[in-house]
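Tutorial handout. Part one gives the primary structure; part two gives the three-dimensional structure as tokens.
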Amino acid sequence: MTAGHDTSFRGRRFALIATIVIQSLYMLTIPLWYIVSMFSVMLFDDPNAERFPPVLIFYYSLQSYPYVTVIMIAVSWLLYRKRYYRRAVLMNILPVALIVIGLIPMLIWGE
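Part two.
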């Protein structure tokens, strides 16, 4: 067995374990997302909130979370099957990055 093949095996194994663990955590957060989604309309309690871009960005990032999660789960498994292990793991991180990117404007410009 060559060193290159051994590295590929470790990368494949790491990608498989990381993908399963991360996606299991996503499946646990979907019911919590439902509760957060119900209360996210309270972001618009202030009459001027609908014209405040950070509120809109955060609201739409919260609402798109389950759709992005399901799409990224499918994409990551397709990439894993095509042996793009590093890309498969990176696709698993995208739903969390979406929420963080939506939260940053609220933290910077929010009151």
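Part three, for discussion. Residues 3-39 form the longest helix (37 residues). The two ends are 59 Å apart (CA to CA).
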